[in-house]
Amino acid sequence: xxxxxxxxxxxxxxxxxxxxxGVFHNYEALLKKLHSSRALVEQLTQDNSTLxxxxxxxxxxxxxxxxxxxxxxxxxxxxxxxxxxAMSEELKASYKSKTQxxxxxxxxxxxANVMRARLEVVEEECQQLRQAKAQLERDRxxxxxxxxxxxxxxxxxxxxxxxxxxxxxxxxxxxxELMAENNSLVERMMCLKMKEMETVDQMTQLNETQTKxxxxxxxxxxxxxxxxxxxxxxLNNAVKQPSTHMVAQPPAAVAHxxxxxxxxxxxxxxxxxxGTLYATGGAGKVVKLWPVNGDAPLKQLxxxxxxxxxxxxxxxxxxxxxxxxxxxxxxxxxxQNRLELTLTGHSEKIxxxxxxxxxxxxxGSHDRTVRWWDLAAGGKCVxxxxxxxxxxxxxxxxxxxxxSAHFDGAVRxxxxxxxxxxxxIEQAGSSQLxxxxxxxxxxxLLTASKDGLLKIFDVRTYGELLFLKHTDFGIxxxxxxxxxxxxxxxxxxxxxxxxxxxxxxxxSVGGKxxxxxxxxEGPITCCSWHPDGxxxxxxxxxxxxxVLR
Length: 549
Fold this sequence. Notes:
Elements: H1 2-68, H2 74-223, H3 229-239, E1 254-258, E2 266-271, E3 277-282, E4 287-291, E5 299-301, E6 308-313, E7 319-324, E8 328-333, E9 338-344, E10 350-356, E11 360-365, E12 369-374, E13 380-386, E14 391-396, E15 401-406, E16 411-415, E17 420-425, E18 433-438, E19 444-449, E20 454-458, E21 463-468, E22 483-484, E23 490-494, E24 503-508, E25 513-518, E26 524-529, E27 536-540, E28 545-548
Antiparallel strand pairs: 1-28, 2-3, 3-4, 4-5, 6-7, 7-8, 8-9, 10-11, 11-12, 12-13, 14-15, 15-16, 16-17, 18-19, 19-20, 20-21, 22-23, 23-24, 24-25, 26-27, 27-28
């Protein structure tokens, strides 16, 4: 647009310049003619003066001849008169020519004045055009500079486009290779799934046989006397319990009470793997380790910044991880009684933490991620898995399968080796899940949801085995955690309804309510069974921990 305007201005300037040149040439020609006319007038004036002088001389001579030349013949007089007459005619013609030349000179002078005025106008317009031309030159220089910058920019953009095209080509090639590799992995996974399904079918058949036998023996156990050792031994053989585990029994009464944090709410109570002590923690922000039969804590672990919600012992029992309402997970060394590491990376509170494998920890947070930590590498986060929903708890089951409970009511199962989600049990609860607990020696998962339902799932078939509920049982805490007995025969859960007196409920896996009793003065937050099944501990918001036997 600017270039077109510049060309228009240049064209107009050329037309005006050409017109000025024409006027100037005409003015020069007119000046030449004026000079010529002036010379001619001067010559005629000189000739006229000469003629007048000659005429006067002739008239004087004629008069003299007429007066004094009496002897002169008439012929000579006539000749002189004729010459005088001729000279008079010539003088008249000279006057006439002079008059015409004077008139022509006047006309030329008027024309010269007009041309001079026009020349002044043209000169003024030329001055304006010169200024416009200078401005156009400056604009042209600026446009040239901008054009060069635009060309340089276009060159750079072209180079960038070519580089991006090359990168896209490489990415496309890598994508094709990844798709080929993915297809190969899918084929391998399908083969493994087929083998796994065959194994699951076999295990299901075996489990059905054992379950049937267990139920028969439970029925016989209920009819038998307490001292019927043969039935109990048969039941132990059927569920294949390790020799270090006893058959769990429903609690009878409170055997011990402790108040860990001067009445502040207690959110977890967890037994060590060897069963020699248990850990408590909550709003006091301190983890306390208690002997099973003692009244005073053996150790206290400090440096937590927020209210504590979850805790997990390592397999050796020498370390434990604790998390809560701040985005940090704390690793404590129990033997050295100190904070060993802080696992940082989550952006919101962490309500799930668990040991798995060798020196590895999994955490679940309200930032909708599950993070995987390698303690051997100094607490490095080796992977962050997105789960698209708030995580309220994590646990580890048979085969080091990590399970997480979420706000959307789903239980997600993770392969602890690849840190990939292997399956999701959708709608494990009709509302948000508060916890998930894995059985120690079987393929069962216990979930609790805020609608007051407890469900047991088989992780091999992902099917629901049992659901438990009661009119007086309800859950209002987002982190309420029930538990399974070590032998998998009982489920213990504490009610957290604020409108009713909190009670402890214990069901058999057959669905029968075998124990219920109001124990705490506030909502019950957590239940934990001793590893040998000999006792059950509960924690509540009333600041108490109760041990039932």
